[in-house]
Amino acid sequence: MVRRRLIPACVMGAALTALAACGMERDMAERAEMPDTADITRAMHDPAMRDSMLDTMPGGEMARGDSAAAMKLLEMKR
């Protein structure tokens, strides 16, 4: 019995929130910062570059020699 009353109330609440947000206007940022991931992508394929990149990352020195852990760290950075 409680579920039958609760579900329509939740649906109505979500619909009202969507309608209220639909008409809102927000100021856009003048520019967006996009990180350059080209170096990280290159490091994934070049072992020497990968080692130097891992030296600069927390936990990177422990991932050296373990290719799966190194790739995981580089993916997180990308």
What does this structure look like?
By secondary structure, the protein is an all-alpha fold. The chain has a domain at 36-78. It is 68% helix and 0% strand. The protein has 5 helices and no strands. The protein has helices spanning 2-22, 38-45, 47-55, 60-63, 67-77. The radius of gyration is 24 Å and the shape is elongated. The mean pLDDT is 75.
Secondary structure: elements and pairs:
Blueprint (H helix, E strand, L loop, with lengths): L1 H21 L15 H8 L1 H9 L4 H4 L3 H11 L1
Essential attributes:
78 residues, mainly alpha, 5 helices, 68% helix
What is the general shape?
elongated
N-to-C span: 50 Å
Structural class comes to mainly alpha
Alpha-carbon Rg, integer = 24 Å
What is this structure, in a nutshell?
This protein has 78 residues and is mainly α. Helices cover 68% and strands 0% of the residues.
